[in-house]
Amino acid sequence: xxxxxxxxxxxxxxxxxxxxxxxxxxxxxxxxxxxxxxxxxxxxxxxxxxxxxxxxxxxxxxxxxxxxxxxxxxxxxxxxxxxxxxxxxxxxxxxxxxxxxxxxxxxxxxxxxxxxxxxxxxxxxxxxxxxxxxxxxxxxxxxxxxxxxxxxxxxxxxxxxxxxxxxxxxxxxxxxxxxxxxxxxxxxxxxxxxxxxxxxxxxxxxxxxxxxxxxxxxxxxxxxxxxxxxxxxxxxxxxxxxxxxxxxxxxxxxxxxxxxxxxxxxxxxxxxxxxxxxxxxxxxxxxxxxxxxxxxxxxxxxxxxxxxxxxxxxxxxxx
Amino acid sequence: xxxxxxxxxxxxxxxxxxxxxxxxxxxxxxxxxxxxxxxxxxxxxxxxxxxxxxxxxxxxxxxxxxxxxxxxxxxxxxxxxxxxxxxxxxxxxxxxxxxxxxxxxxxxxxxxxxxxxxxxxxxxxxxxxxxxxxxxxxxxxxxxxxxxxxxxxxxxxxxxxxxxxxxxxxxxxxxxxxxxxxxxxxxxxxxxxxxxxxxxxxxxxxxxxxxxxxxxxxxxxxxxxxxxxxxxxxxxxxxxxxxxxxxxxxxxxxxxxxxxxxxxxxxxxxxxxxxxxxxxxxxxxxxxxxxxxxxxxxxxxxxxxxxxxxxxxxxxxxxxxxxxxxxxxxxxxxxxxxxxxxxxxxxxxxxxxxxxxxxxxxxxxxxxxxxxxxxxxxxxxxxxxxxxxx
Lengths: 319, 390
Description:
Chain A has helices spanning 2-29, 46-55, 62-74, 87-122, 127-141, 144-159, 176-214, 217-224, 229-241, 243-251, 255-258, 261-266, 272-281, 285-313. By secondary structure, chain A is an all-alpha fold. The relative contact order of chain A is 0.13. Chain B has 16 helices and 2 strands. Chain B is globular.
C-alpha cells in the first residue's frame, strides 16, 4: 500500500513536470506575441513594447522564461499581464464564484442520475427504460448553448424571472427572502446546464452497472430464497453496483476548476470559465498557464484519490 | 510422407460448405436491424451526408445557385416560409427557391443557404478531426501494444533527445545551435550503428554496455504521454490554441484531432496486448511476415471494432466542439457560415427571431444525435456480451 502510494506520487510529479513543459511550449511557440496584442493602440510605442518585454522577461530565451515563470508560480508572485493583479488571488475570487455552480451541478447530477439509472435497469426494455435512454442521448447530443437559450426563453416567458448574471442588477436593499430567491433562480439554470451531460452519462453508467449485477448468481439466489424485491434490488444488487461509483468521487475534482466557458459567457457569470476566456483573448499568459497547471494538478489528485478509493473499496486488487 | 491422408470420405467432407452461410456483414446487419434507434441514426447520418455534399455544390463557386452571402437589407429578419417582397428586390437578389425556407437573418441573408453552407463545415470538421485522431491513435496504440515490452536504450534516448532539441531550436530561429544539435544526433545514430557491428566480433567494453543500457519500455513511454495529454482540460486547450493561431477551419480540424486521440490509443493498445498472444499472430510470425504486415493486415482488422465505435461518437463530439468554438467566435472567418456562428449571430434576436436560434440548434442536435445513436448501436452489435443477453 505505502509503496503503491509512493510510486504513484513519483509518477504524478513526473507527469506534472512534463505537463508544465508542454503547456509552456504550446503557448510560447504559437505565433504572435502578447506585446503586440493591441497594435493600433497609440499608447503602445516601440519603447513601451520594449519596456513591457523587459518587465516580463519576454526578451530572455525560452528556458529562462520557463524557470522564471514557475519560480514565480511556486512563490505565489505571478502577476497578470493585463492588470498587474496577483494571479492566484484573481483565480481564487473567480473560483468562489464558480463554486456554487459546481456544488449545485454535482448534487443535481448525482441525485438525478442514480434513481433514473436504477429504475431503468429494473424495468429493462420497458417504456420507462426506452424513453430514459432516448432522453439520455438527447441530453448528450444537445449543444449546451442551444439548450441554454431554450431554457432561458422558457423560464423568462413562463415565470417572468431574470436569469442572466449572478443576481438581478440593482436588487441591493430588498428583503432577504427576495434576494435569496433571486440568487436561487440565477443559480439554477447554469448549474442545471452544467449538469446535463453528467446526468446523461452517469445514468447510463448506473444502468449498465446495475444490469451487470442483476445478472449475477447471488442475486438469483437472493430471489430464489424468497426475499422481497426491495431487499433483492437495494440490499444485494445495488450495494455491489455502487462499487465503481465510489471511485468517481475522485474524478469529479477536476470539474472544480473547469467551469464551462460557454455556459458562463451566456449567463454572464463571472466564474473561472469566463476568466479563462478573457485571459485567452488578452493573451494573458500567466493566467492561462496557471489555470492549466492548477487543473492538471487537480486531475492528478483526482486520479490518485480514485486509485486509493479503489484500493480501499475493492480488496481484490490490493496488490 | 508416403501416407495419403485423402481418403474418399474426407474428400467428400471437404466439399461440404464449412464456412457459416451468412457472411460477417450479413450477420452484423441482422443484429443491427433490431435496434430501431440505431437505424434511425444511420438513416439520418446518410441524409446529412447527402445534404452536405449537395449543399457544397449549391453554395460554392462564383455564381452559386443559393447565395449564402447575398445581403438584402430591406428583407431582414423575415420568418421562415415567407415569400420575398418582389417589388423591393433586384431581379438577381430574389432567392432561387422563391421563398425563404428558414427565413432571413439580421442582414437579410437567406438562412437556408447559410445552413447548407455550414453543413459542409460540420461534416468535414467531424470527419477530418476524427480521422487525424484515429491515425495517431492507431499508430501509437499499435506501437505500444505490439512493441510495448521492448526497452528504449540509452543510445536511442540520447540520439532522440539531440534530434528533438535540434528541431525545437530550429523552430525558434536558432539555426546554428539547431544544426549542431541535429548533427550530434546523427553522430549518435552513426556511432551506435558502428559499435553494434564491432560488438559482434569482440568482447564489449564497459561503456558500450552503458550505451545499450535499457531504460523505460516503449509501452510506458506512450502511456505516460497519454497521461500527460489527459491532464489538459480539453476544451480549454483547444480554445487556447485556436485563439492563438490564425482563424481557419483547417486549424480547428487539426487541433481537435490532435487533442482527442488518447481514447483510441488506449483501446488499440488493449486490443493489441491480447491479440499479440493469440495463435494466428504467432502463425503469421512463424511464416516470416514482417511486422508491418502482421500489424496492419492481421491484427488491425481484429482490433478495429472498438475504434469504429469511438470514431463514430468522436465525430459527434468534434461537431459539438466546432459548433461551440464558432459560437464563441473562433474558427471560420465571418462571411463563411457555420451552424455555430449562425446561432451566435442570432442570439441577439432570440425573442424577435427565434428561428435564427432554433434552426441551427436543432440541426446540430439532430446530426450529433444520429451519430451518437448509430455509434451506440454499433457498440451493442459488436459487443458479444451484450448480444447474448438479447
